[in-house]
Design brief:
single chain; 14 helices; five-stranded antiparallel β-sheet; alpha/beta; 48% helix
Length: 625
């Protein structure tokens, strides 16, 4: 659409509305003219009727008496009085017919025939009264009275009202014309100039658009629009340049940065573990499974992000460069997630840094469950641990501690390192998208993703640091209730029998060490290595079932039976704890909850609190590891 078309369209709309309003006002004023004219004429008629009735009420009986007595002098006097009623508004005439003498008195021609009562003649502007006269029961004649409005006076009244309505019409028309001219001068013309400037603007060269002047414009919103448009052109030009650069960068590193950022840690751990596959110790096999699961989760997340982007969910460069935060949350065991991730980190940094990762799984930390997405939580925690490790100089002995504290309905997770620290002026910028501090290959995604994900969960992140001393990162999460499969502590009587069923000798030794540290304990520890050994022991000790607790492994090498099969077959649900390295399987957790069987990860066997009946204070085994 050309500027001329724009003006024609806007002007045409204004002109059309102007004509419509003029027609409406003209119609209203014509109606007002008729109404006021009718009202004025009606008032004249009313005054005429009032005078006529006043004369008839006073003189009719006298006229009847004079006509009966043949008193012509009195009759003429009475008939002459009606003429005195005439003023500038009306004039009156009267005629009297004497029935006995058959004569007509008065100057008004007597009508040949008429009905009694009042008659109106609007075109002639006349009112007439005709009535019969009677005295002493005898009809004496007829009375005819006529009043007529003066035509010049009626015309003057109607003309005056017409002039008044015409003046109103011309005034309103003048006001509307002035208003439309103002619209054209203050809105239409400036908009056309603005449109012409927009057509002349060259985005690539950044010229041709800033040719507007507000010197001749009135101080209205249009002048402010001109100034705002000029400023907007500058911002558009700057944003266009940044957008081109950003698009070029995003096209090359968007997917690569995400893959490198997420897969780097589990892939390093997997490579380290694979180098020791000669003997394949159980803990190495467990670590390989965890790393493989993490890689699988990251790959799934990349697929989901790509699918969301194809569907148009990530439409802006900022959104597409930011990892998509999952909203599928569930109650997750934070201590288990932390322990599994620390296995990966210890291997990842053992050859490059002298760093110790310390977790404090006391009773409070051991029983902490949070409303999180386990995949996103591990992703955030992995990035934070990497940041902490990379902040420790290579020539310095590093220490990274993790604390979990329960505060009412919240859980605070703290990551403390003794690295180089962060300057105060940098701290507010750390969670901004694309900002990276003191990292050569930093993408500026990790902390921003952590902040946005936590906020979507109703949580917060707080970063505190002192240069030269270290950094403390505190994540605040919503606490979740304990699930039915969770084992907060191992509780025994002092003289109880504990049967350990596991095909791994290392875990038999672990339980032996854990129970050996119990003071005043008379626990009888039984070690079984195969599923059939349990059935033999139960057959040999039928009376010991009521005072026995079972720590049952899930997988047995060379056997098709699982620990759950043993528990179900021997009906030892309430006495049993399933000890397995597959506690992150939701299906297994749900089965244990439905069977009233507690679940304990093998990675948490060294941390689970142990309490004897009657013991006070912290459970044995709780505290720093």
């Amino acid at each position: 659409m050309t500027p001329t078309d724009v003006r024609a369209t806007i002007s045409g709309i204004i002109a059309e509305k102007y004509r419509s309003i003029i027609f409406i006002i003209a119609g209203l004023l014509v109606g007002l003219w008729f109404t006021l004219s009718a009202y004025a004429i009606n008032n004249l008629y009313q005054r005429t009727l009032d005078r006529m009735y006043g004369w008839i009420l006073v003189n009719k009986s006298k006229v009847e008496e004079g006509l009966f007595l043949s008193n012509n002098e009195s009759l003429r006097l009475r008939l002459g009085q009606i003429c005195t009623l005439s003023d500038s508004l009306t004039h009156y005439d009267v005629a009297l017919y004497d029935a006995d003498k058959k004569t007509v008195l008065g100057t008004l021609p007597f009508p040949a025939s008429s009905n009694s009562g009042m008659e109106y003649n609007i075109p002639m502007l006349r009112t007439a009264y005709f009535d019969s006269l009677a005295f002493a029961g005898k009809q004496t004649g007829y009375l005819y009275v006529r009043a007529q409005l003066k035509t010049p006076l009626v015309l003057a009244t109607v003309l005056l009202i017409f002039v008044l309505c015409s003046g109103i019409f011309l005034t309103v028309k003048r006001l509307l014309s002035s208003f439309t001219n103002t619209l054209d001068r203050r809105i239409v013309r400036p908009i056309i100039s603005l449109r012409e400037s927009m057509n002349r603007f060259d985005m690539e060269k950044g010229s041709g658009g800033v040719s507007l002047s507000t010197e001749n414009l009135p101080a209205t919103e249009i002048a402010e629009l001109y100034l705002g448009y000029s400023a907007m052109l500058d911002r558009i030009r700057e944003y266009s340049e940044l957008e081109i650069k950003r698009a070029e960068a995003d096209a090359t590193f968007r997917v690569a940065a995400q893959v490198a950022h997420d897969i780097r840690s589990p892939l390093t751990a997997l490579k380290t573990a694979c180098s020791n596959l000669g003997a394949v110790p159980p803990d190495v096999g467990h670590l390989i499974r965890l790393a493989a699961d993490r890689i699988n989760e990251i790959a799934n997340n990349l697929i989901e992000n790509n699918r969301a982007q194809v569907k148009g969910q990530a439409t802006t460069p900022a959104a597409s460069a930011t990892p998509q935060a999952s909203t599928e949350r569930s109650p997750e065991w934070l201590a288990l997630l932390i322990e599994n991730l620390l296995l990966e980190k210890r291997l990842q940094f053992q050859s490059t840094h002298d760093i110790s990762f310390q977790f404090q799984p006391d009773v409070e930390a051991f029983s902490a469950f949070g409303w999180v997405d386990s995949r996103e939580f591990k992703r955030m925690l992995s990035n934070l641990l990497n940041n902490a490790a990379e902040a420790i100089p290579a020539d310095k002995s590093g220490k990274i501690e993790i604390f979990v504290r329960r505060k009412d309905s919240r859980i605070d997770l703290e990551i403390v390192d003794n690295g180089k620290g962060i300057p105060p002026e940098v701290l507010p910028k750390l969670t901004q998208l694309g900002f990276s501090f003191d990292k050569k290959a930093g993408t500026g995604l990790g902390l921003h993703h952590c902040k946005t994900t936590l906020e979507s969960w109703g949580g917060t992140i707080l970063i505190e640091s002192v240069v030269g001393q270290g950094t403390r990162v505190t994540l605040s999460l919503e606490a979740a209730p304990l699930p039915g499969w969770f084992l907060p502590e191992l509780h025994f009587r002092k003289d109880q029998v504990v049967v350990v069923i596991d095909d791994d000798k290392m875990f038999h030794e672990l339980w032996r060490l854990r129970f050996a540290g119990l003071a005043d304990s008379e626990l009888n520890l039984i070690h079984l290595y195969k599923p059939e050994e349990l059935e033999m022991w139960l057959g040999e000790n039928p009376g010991a079932l009521a005072r026995t607790r079972f720590l049952v492994d899930y997988d047995f090498a060379g056997s098709h039976e699982t620990g759950l099969d043993l528990i179900r077959k021997n009906s030892i649900y309430f006495q049993s704890v399933l000890v397995t390295g597959q506690t992150d399987l939701n299906e297994l957790r749900n089965i244990c909850a439905s069977m009233n069987v507690r679940l304990l990860p093998k990675s948490m066997a060294a941390s689970v609190p142990i309490r004897l009946a009657g013991q006070t204070g912290p459970a044995h085994g709780a505290g720093p590891r």
